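HUMAN: Forgive my ignorance: could you write out one protein's sequence and C-alpha cells?

ASSISTANT:
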Amino acid sequence: MKTTEMVLNFLKQQGFCPEVDPDNGNILFKFQMASFLFVNNDEDEEFFQLVMPNIFDVTEDNREVALEAANKMNFSIKVVKACIVNDGIWLFFENLLDKTPDVSDILPRALQILQAARQQYYQNIN
C-alpha cells in the first residue's frame, strides 16, 4: 500500500475528515483547529512530508523578523523547517521512511512536533 493511502486510511480510522486534492493527491485535514497538508510523494514513497501551512503572515515590514524567527526555530526543532511560501510562514515536517512504515506511529508524533514548532516560532517572533 502506498504511503498516501496509509495516511488517508489512518486519518479516517481516527475520526478525521480528510479531503484529497484531485489535482495532486495531497491530503488536507484539520487537527486541533489547525490546517495540515500531507504531501503526496508517489515518486518517492520513502519520503514523508506533513505541512502546517501559513502559520504567520509575512509582510514587507516584518519579513526580516519573520526570517530570524524561522531561523531560530529551524535550529532548535528536529525534522521541521520553516519557510516563506506565498507571503506566509509554512512549517514542513520531513522524514525518510523505511520499507514498511507504520503511519500510526509517525503521524501523531509529526503532528505534535509541528505544533511544538509553531509554538516555538511564535515565541521567537515575540
In short: Helices lie at 3-13, 63-76, 103-125. The chain has a mean pLDDT of 94. The chain is about 40% helix and 30% strand.
